[in-house]
Amino acid sequence: MAHFLGVDTGGTYTDAVIVDEAADLVIGKAKSLTTRADLALGIGRAVDAALAQSGVAAADVALVSLSTTLATNALVEGQGGRVALIFVGFDEGDLERGGLIEALKGDPVVKIAGGHSHAGVQLAPLDIAALEAHLRDLGPQVMGFAVAARFATRNPAHEVAIRDLIRRITGRPVTCSHELSAQLNGPKRALTAVLNARLIGMIDRLVSACERHLASVGITAPLMVVRGDGALISAAMVRERPIETILSGPAASIVGARWLTGAKDALVSDIGGTTTDVALLRDGLPEIDPQGARVGGFRTMVEAVAMRTSGLGGDSEVHLITEGLLGGMRLGPRRLIPVSLLASEHGPMVHAALDRALASDKAGDMDGRFVVPMAGQTGGLSPRELTVLERITAPMPMAQVLTTRLEIAALERLVARGLVMISGVTPSDASHVLGGLDAWDASAAEKALEILGRRRNGAGERFSTEPKALAQGIVDQLTTQTVECLLEAAFDEDTAFAGESPEVLARHTLTRAALSRHRGVIEFTARLGVPVIGLGASAPYYYGAVGTRLGCEMILPEHAGVANAIGAVVGQVSQRATAMVTSPGVGRFTAHLPDGLQSFTDPEAAMVAAETALTLEASRRAKLAGAEDLRITTARDLRSALVEGQPMFVEATISVTASGRPRVAHAVPEEVEL
Description:
Helix 1 packs across helix 7, helix 5 runs parallel beside helix 6 (157-169) and helix 10 (339-345) packs across helix 11 (347-359). The protein starts with a strand and ends in a 14-residue tail after the last strand. Strands 3-2-1-4-9-10 form a 6-stranded mixed β-sheet, sandwiched between helices. The protein is of the alpha/beta class. The chain is built from 22 helices and 29 strands. This is Hydantoinase/oxoprolinase N-terminal domain-containing protein. It holds the Pfam family Hydantoinase_A.
């Protein structure tokens, strides 16, 4: 009998489940607060509690699989370490495309000569000498490097040479764009490489934390990690390609939703502390986004489930809009530490600061807000940022940290680097005031909401004089924004609205009128045509109102709060290798293979050679990722043109996928005849 351990590390909670594989049953589950300063603590508490509840011995765990939203959250919130981009053969205009400048956030870029043509022929020699001087200066200032060379997917030689040089001179992690995607579009590949490099430190800390605790309790089973497309890969592989874990948690939640409910057609909506993730199940399977995962405003080249991720969660920042006579409210996209949670751990300090703010007649912008130091690298910080960071020696009121308004920008930079977190009012606090949640300090939440309600709108009136009224307004706003998330996904998937903006349609006056069952000279009625599967620990509290608003069936499975952890251990390992076959001239065909270019005089021979090489490469990756009993599937995407009525080969994309169940511990090797 095999027992599997699934772990999901989110922004607020870390979940663990024990699944009896033979019986398809959850026999143990637990939640623990995610401890960002030392992730092993939160992981350990959840794992130990789940093992204790299940009665399964650590030595009997045959497989461990990890999903996480940390990478997704970091991109949504604009966080991550400082990196440098080595940009080879591109011009200044290429930096402006695909959101690359926004993703860099002022991090250094080194542009050097080099690159190849679309046929894989070198356009200019690689200027290694110019790069060496830059690397000696940049090495101490950044945590990693991203390398993107022109047409590297057709010939990766320049990226490989630069990777080797960076490792020799700096010892820092390096991400090459051709290793993440076989597609064209250099700036978009560069963006994906930058984001990957920025996430390496974070995911390495997570995997190391999980491995440390597993070793300490005697679990020797292989550790797998969920990719953004729901497939599993080994922990060793994910350390080099952490970008593949964006949408890991959401992908695991879809797999978990299908396993828990058996539903074939439904919208799956997973609310966490930081994000709400929505995807469509069609015939029991999610779609893979052909354009690459989209997270936090960035469109990457990472294959992932077709998922809409919004910066809306139980711990989203509450923004009061003071413009206009009546003002308004908006939630997210940044995650805060709820005041009620901070008070449950640092009660005397939090209550003293809240009481001081309540004793004053003036409503300050920093009242009811706190700062909390986090672990991380400080390279590349400005003197002002370092000065602010040095003051934050423990959780403390924000007003105690900032001496001038000029330091606000410095604090925001520290938050973006993940070195500091802010605590303030969130929907979780509102839920504690209303009695929907009771895990943390409700009295601190009530004080914080009273302070927030003192702020004034354009008419000079307070937003609220009663904490419960403001709390209800916050929960209602969460309902409104969740409905918008679901409608965006629905309009995007409904072919009748192809070409229209789902964001506009979801918020259109007619849509709102139809959902409200408007009855006047014109009558409107609308409802969601598929059920919604609500996942997340807080879904039972928030999603009843969402289902009512959308007029649809709301499915809340028994283990909705740990669906991600369940999905982590019921998936498959899958690796795909892709290559191009091009025709640089009449009667000439080039296969762009993982180990270089090969020329042929026949297109079929070139494609067969590509399939053979890709089968070896996909199988190698799948075995490295932890798979056994591989299944191989091959696909060809041919492009041709009619010339004098006859089809002429233009190019072909060859893909080979190797998939299988992950290797588990305690397997008995087959006997081999010698």
